[in-house]
Amino acid sequence: MPIVRVELWTGRTQAQKRELARVITEAVVNIAHTTPEATIVIFQDIDKEDWAQGGALASETTE
């Protein structure tokens, strides 16, 4: 049973997550030769103040 974890900044819509889940599942099924029912996709929303890159909090950058 493949499990794919996706960490994203908070703010993605349910429609975006639905589409991501669909295409990730499709890719895993095709590449790992498994079934959609056996494939789990877990989304974790992370606030920008809880994410740092290059020593700076994402909440303090302009991106």
Task: Summarize the structure in words.
The protein has a single domain (3-60), classed as Macrophage Migration Inhibitory Factor (2-Layer Sandwich). With 63 residues, it is of the alpha+beta class. The protein is 30% helix and 29% strand. β1, α1 and β2 (40-46) form a beta-alpha-beta unit. The protein is built from 1 helix and 4 strands. The strands form 2 sheets. A two-stranded parallel ribbon has the order 1-2. Strands 3-4 form a two-stranded antiparallel ribbon.
DSSP helical segment count: 1
Q: Report the principal-axis shape.
A: elongated
Distance between the termini: 36 Å
> Which strand order does the major sheet show?
1-2
Let me know the number of strands.
4
The third-level CATH topology is Macrophage Migration Inhibitory Factor
Any idea how many domains? 1
CATH class: Alpha Beta
Task: List its traits.
single chain; 63 residues; alpha+beta; Macrophage Migration Inhibitory Factor; two-stranded antiparallel ribbon; 1 helix; 29% strand
Sum this structure up briefly:
With 63 residues, the protein is of the alpha+beta class. It has one helix and four strands; from the N terminus they run βαβββ.
Task: Provide the fold topology.
Blueprint: E1 3-9, H1 14-32, E2 40-46, E3 52-53, E4 56-57
Parallel strand pairs: 1-2
Antiparallel strand pairs: 3-4
